[in-house]
Design brief:
mainly alpha, single chain, disordered N terminus
Length: 134
Amino acid sequence: MKKPDNQAENRISSTTWHDSEDLRWAVRNWSAWIGVKPARVQIRPMSTKWASITTTGSMTLDTDLLSLPKELGEFAIVHELVHLLAPNHGRVFKSFIHAYIPDWEELETQLQTYAKKEDNKKGAPRAKPKSKKK
């Protein structure tokens, strides 16, 4: 995996989430913007993903998102919410992601960098959102 350049790293906000309600607020805010409504939002430890969403709209967010910069957490949130519009990572999905977060590829790379750091700390593999296929 290619490490992003320093310019991309500097662009990421160092502001983290205050608490789980702050994360839930972001879900509500992005849901309204995108025009979808998750049936429920839960925040709990996840061992292999940052977030997931079911076809019925049940969203789960990893508690580790609370320690990441907000911009990366918002990318994970938007990624999952867009699955309510496009279930796979095909062209339609990428079009939606790009419409809401034009620099999503940079953010995805950053999130994968955090995942790699976590792997080194915990020794557990973490699968991250995969949207790179072109």
